[in-house]
Amino acid sequence: MGVVPATVLAYFFACKFEFNPEFQLLPPNFPKNLTLELSNFVNWADEIVVEDIWTAYPESAAQVLMLTNWAVDHNYTIRASGAMHNWSPLTVDILKTFASDKGIFKYLFPGSNLRNNVGKTILVKTMNYLNNMEIISAGDQNASFWAQPGILLVDLLKTLERHKLGILNYPAIGEITLGGALAIGAHGTGAPAKYETLSKGHTYGSLSNLVIAFTTIVYDKDSNKYVLKEFHRSEATSGAFLVHLGKTFVTNVTMRAGPLQYVRCQSFTDISAQELFDENNGLRSIPNFLNRSGRIEVIWFPFTSNPWLKVWTVSETKPEASLYVHEAYNYPFTDRFPEALALILGKITSWWDNVKIINRLYMKFITFGLTVTGTWDIWGASPNVFFYVKPETLKMTESGWAIVTSRSDVRKALQIFYELYTSILDKYSRKNRYPMNGPLGVRITGVDNPQDVGIDQAQTCGICSSRPVLNKPELDTVIWLNILTFRTSYEFTMFVEEIQNSLNENFDGAWAVVRVEWSKGFAYSSLHSSAWTNQTHLKDIIPGSWTDWESSKDTLNQFDPFQVFSNQLLNTLFQARKDL
């Protein structure tokens, strides 16, 4: 090949590629009846990119179990992976590599054993084969179904709909897996409207609150092996697994469902943010919309006066003014923003005063889109109305918190947040700095009530963000706050860290508790210019926001003493150490 220039060698080591003379084409003694290949992991916002990671495609729970025991014997970790619609590094560690770099070195060192240093990790894809479901009972009072983790929510809900069944509280994107949604305690929007009675089989809490039973892979001391174990929701240790963040591998779940609900969604863009967050509880304030309909979402672009407010109302018959929609994703104008333009705008708007003009144009575009598509007022089966985010929707980075408070204090909590958010935003803009150029999102749900699942002694979801606060039953409502921006925005970490610290100062546990939303950005540190790096938050503040943290941590670590289902972030959160 000739002499390799010193600059190339320097670049080689700077990129942290390793020359490993013991590297094998395949992991050693890998089970022969399991499909294995190199693939890429790319999360939703393209912020976590790992190329050439070993990826397995098991066809059954038995194969996942076999892979797990192989991983323990060979010091590998197993990471379940679905649709990769996530922001936080719960699946793989934060590491970015580039195919072009590796291509250079494969050319320079043909036949050499080069790979990016991603560690001994096997990604386990669930969508290809572990995607089945069955209806167990379709009765109005006790409907239930069985499902594997790789089924997409949109497919699951379509199947339920064919049996006149449904769920009423789930995320706005349908192309995520059930396993991933349950792992992080996914939610939608929904709190009790005035005079509303919750239908059996439904919940105002998270999706995880509907789990009746599940099978997962745990360590068995007697056999000194990992085994498949079924848990029922009434078992004391079951609660820790209901939101596990990937600290186990759930191979199937049995869940409750309720009667199919029909829902109306009305959009408003003529109400100012000041009126929505009004401390005097005006007629068009969020608490009043909540009382009337129970289900709202606010999408508010910075430096605009009026947000996009969506109000969902359960309505068994179609209102005369509503458009009957037979399919989901009825706001196509939100999917038409070019990715390349988004990246450019993310760079220029961080320092550009015209970010205000751009955000006002966004709102005009939304208003125009609602008019052209005739979707100001739509009605249909709940999945056709709630699902509106597609995989190709504009990708932004996103931070998330959950404020658990009482229904009577929703107004107070919203007003405090409104004041601190606008104050910090204005402080930056006065210096001609615009770290946030995406919208603020607000949704409201109830807390997880284990009685909703309809079984005796049902356990509460251990570390779900919507878990009730111990000994404070009056804290029955969760305000979900999300801040979005183009991922190239400058100073975003510093800005969000200020928001994060202000939230913790204002909601100190007396009448409201602030928690993180597991799938989003949290534990921001401007020192490291990144989320998920603030050690004080990861080790103290976040665990301290759950009264059941220690119990859940101990249970998850007890059933995975070899940390085969873990990564750097989870090891930090759960103070996990491998039990050799």
Report on the structure:
By secondary structure, the chain is of the alpha+beta class. Among the domains are: 6-125, Uridine Diphospho-n-acetylenolpyruvylglucosamine Reductase, domain 2 (2-Layer Sandwich); 133-259, 2-Layer Sandwich (Uridine Diphospho-n-acetylenolpyruvylglucosamine Reductase, domain 3). It is 27% helix and 22% strand. The strands form five sheets. The protein has a nine-stranded mixed sheet. Strand 2 and strand 3 (49-56) form a beta hairpin. Helix 12 (410-429) runs antiparallel to helix 13 (492-506). The longest helix is centred in the last third of the chain and has 20 residues, at 410-429. The chain is globular and about 65 Å long. The model is unreliable at 1-24 and 96-117 (pLDDT under 50).
Multimer state: single chain
User: What is the C-alpha radius of gyration, as a whole number of Å?
Assistant: 24 Å
Q: What fraction of the residues are assigned to beta strands by DSSP?
A: 15-25%
How many helices in DSSP terms?
16
- Which strand order do you get reading across the main beta sheet? 17-18-14-16-15-20-21-19-22
CATH class of the domain at 133-259: Alpha Beta
Percent of residues in helices comes to: 25-40%
Largest sheet: 9 strands, mixed
Average pLDDT for all residues: 89
The termini sit apart by 44 Å
Low-confidence stretches: 1-24, 96-117
CATH-scheme architecture of the domain at 133-259: 2-Layer Sandwich
Helix-strand makeup class: alpha+beta
Pfam family, one: Chol_subst-bind
Protein name: FAD-binding PCMH-type domain-containing protein
GO molecular function: FAD binding; oxidoreductase activity, acting on the CH-OH group of donors, oxygen as acceptor
InterPro entries: Cholesterol_OX_subst-bd, FAD-bd_PCMH, FAD_lactone_oxidase-like
